[in-house]
Write a structure and sequence with these properties.
Largest interface: A-B, 62 and 63 residues
Largest sheet of chain A: 6 strands, parallel
Oligomer: homodimer
Number of helices of chain A: 16
Strand content of chain A: 5-15%
CATH class of chain A: Alpha Beta
Radius of gyration of chain A: 21 Å
Order of helices and strands of chain A: EEEEHEHHEEHEHEHHHEHHEHHEHHHH
Helix content of chain A: 25-40%
CATH topology of chain A: TIM Barrel
CATH superfamily of chain A: Metal-dependent hydrolases
Number of domains of chain A: 1
Strand order of the largest sheet of chain A: 7-8-9-10-11-12
Structural class of chain A: alpha/beta
CATH architecture of chain A: Alpha-Beta Barrel
């Protein structure tokens, strides 16, 4: 097996929602109230919903086209971005250039948990837009290139009954997962342990869909010192996946829903062997704590393995200990267009780590596509013959894709000259 | 090398302070105000200081003698405990039975950070008792068996100037370390990042003493769900050591004090390779964050290794990845008399993990005593010839030590019959 023979399915990427996304997915009577992007005098594009400026979807969320000295939290404009961030046709070209067969995309403007719709005052309007978002994901973004995207939807967190309904609705349309908060109690919602979310979890099991819990949502679970720099957030984000696993495993959410599948998106994998050592030793050593609420004769690590997909971008130590994690439980990610992405050298990056860790061909296939496809219930070859799904075959289609990083100003100049990033009604 | 040839120096054990500890270490005029233990009608022993009941030092803190079905948070009495918890002569016998040459003991009643003295209203009185505590540690507990204990003191957190003074005072008396809070900001104190603690950190560097940060102090750094069971605390405690390391490393406390040495006591080691992968990738990938506040041309993991001793009781995954942690940075712990201790089978437990991980003899020596002794600046053979310091030699002296676990009630019966655990003035 060579690097070019790998098949890459990434279950953690992101899009920057385009301003015209609701055009075809919200009934006419609501069209006047869909979220809009307004470009201000400084050239910054700003989403506005229900009269409130909600977010500017740029800065750190879409750095893929820029040199790293331009990364930061400054707001910006669509025309400064690499078009693959918001344009599905350009995205597929960028995937080809990186040898990536398929991708699951998390929201940006909407928030991991549909925050933008949940926080608006008018919840009826929020639900219309949330459903419009999901329909855009399914019927427009993913439908544009069958076989290239694993659909991920959102649920209305403000009402668990509606959330369960929405799971069923999008499940029937072929959606494979929903994004949710990793530590909902930190944002003022009931915790996973509370039982409040059970109807939604049941719906996910019924539809055989995955609960995708992306890092970042739970930053505030750690009480950071006031003086802490942004490094704290970026470094410690993955430690929070262990906290989430603990909530689910000892909650005991996972034991109440034998069919529940949870992806710890971007959570990393290297913390897991240590966590397994700890929970299994704890379980046997502190047996006095588990008289009534047992793990059914299994070790906590075994229950974890039955339910959780551990996801990583780069993780040399975790790969070295893959036998302790369970090679069936590991899935690779690309993270386009965030700062941590390995695009456009993902095949080189992943391949080197596999070789350094001594992975076999079979292990590489499990980690790069087999585990993700099994877990998300998604057939990678339904639309793409296997021989056309490889890194080598996809890259061969992308010889004309320029992957050079360029300053924002240059992107703006080029994009605006070509009419890219300027949407109807933005001014 | 055989199991019996190991030399075990544990840098994490605990004593249950005996009620008469201030008798010889507080001037006569304060003797009427020293903390006292009162035994109530239910037979529970309770510390009282400045008119306030402060803590009952039992339950989970001293389970070493009991079967695990009696573990729990219930308060108890001295006479229910294995006497090695509070009696130095019995402790040394228990150490011999476990093949342990030397031990560093954390407080129980006083709290990791001398909480009991810090929380009292009268700070002058608190300081008298804190100094009395330190003098008892140095001049009584440790002095009773030269070469068997590495002295650990406390500092008055309510005044950093006094804390620095106390470091110098006990440093001159031969103390090798102080215990402190791993995340002081969570308890309402200034954070490590604030600079407030710098005079104390400078004093530690001047005295070449170690800052020992034991897990547990920072539990509340994680916002746990209201429904979380005690499993959360016990499992996640080690994740907090990563948070502490982040505070110190990016603070940038460690870089301002090139001589500062920090032990992450009971923090475990298996999280470190993942943390190193993360911080080193972050540092190189997010170079835009580090223009002014660099690591001096080194990787963050290299700075960690220069300052931090990583400590563990049982850690199969961490040992397997010791080459990624740095075998010079790992130290073994016993944790007598807590629930997580491996006493009295520590040699068997540690030896099996070393064998499973394929450790060489040289690596075993580093992990079991060399690293700890170098780090704490403590010569293990000053009072004990090396050939008498081994597991085999020490155990040979302890043939008469009964290590059987017995119910509390049996301990009480036996101890009280022998006059053990009943101190002057307790009733």
């Amino acid at each position: 097996m060579r690097k070019e023979d790998m098949i890459l399915v990434s279950i953690d990427d992101h899009f920057i929602e385009p301003p015209d996304m609701w055009k075809n997915h919200v009934p006419a009577r609501w069209q006047g109230e869909v979220p809009r992007v307004v470009r201000n005098a400084e050239g910054v594009d700003q989403w506005v919903f229900q009269g409130q400026a909600t977010s500017t979807p740029f800065g750190m969320a879409a750095t893929v086209g820029w040199p790293s000295d331009q990364w930061g939290f400054n707001p910006g404009s669509y025309s400064e971005l690499r078009p693959g961030c918001f344009d599905v046709h350009e995205r597929v070209r960028d995937m080809n250039a990186n040898g990536v067969l398929a991708s699951l995309n998390f929201p940006t403007m909407a928030g991991w948990n549909a925050r933008t719709f949940a926080e608006g005052e008018d919840k009826e309007l929020g639900l219309v837009m949330l459903r419009g978002y999901n329909d855009w994901v399914l019927d427009e973004w993913c439908a544009a290139y069958p076989g290239r995207f694993i659909p991920l939807g959102l649920v209305p967190m403000w009402d668990v009954g509606l959330a369960a309904e929405e799971v069923h609705r999008i499940g029937r349309k072929g959606c494979r997962s929903v994004s949710f908060l990793e530590t909902p109690h930190v944002q003022g919602y009931p915790s996973f342990l509370s039982g409040y979310w059970d109807p939604m979890l049941k719906a996910l099991c019924d539809e055989d869909m995955v609960l995708s819990l992306h890092i970042g949502a739970g930053f505030d679970v750690i009480r950071r010192p006031a003086e802490a720099s942004v490094d704290h957030l970026m470094v410690l984000a993955c430690q929070i996946s262990a906290i989430t696993a603990q909530d689910l495993l000892f909650g005991p959410t996972l034991r109440r829903f034998p069919g529940l599948k949870v992806a710890l998106s971007e959570g990393g994998i290297g913390w897991i062997p240590f966590y397994f050592d700890r929970i299994d030793r704890h379980y046997s050593n502190q047996s006095w704590l588990h008289h009534e609420d047992g793990f059914g004769g299994r070790l906590p690590s075994e229950v974890f393995k039955e339910h959780i997909l551990a996801c990583y971008i780069t993780d040399p130590s975790g790969l070295e200990l893959r036998h302790r994690i369970g090679v069936e439980n590991i899935a690779w990610e690309c993270d386009y267009p965030h700062t941590d992405t390995t695009w456009p050298e993902s095949p080189e990056f992943a391949w080197k780590e596999f070789q350094d860790a001594g992975c076999t061909d079979a292990e590489i296939h499990k980690i790069t596509w087999e585990n993700a496809c099994r877990f998300y219930g998604w057939d990678p070859f339904a639309h793409t013959p296997r021989e056309q799904a490889t890194v080598g075959a996809l890259r061969a289609q992308a010889a004309d894709v320029d992957t050079t990083r360029m300053p924002k100003e240059e992107w703006r100049r080029r994009n605006e000259a070509a009419g890219i990033g300027l949407f109807e009604g933005m001014r």
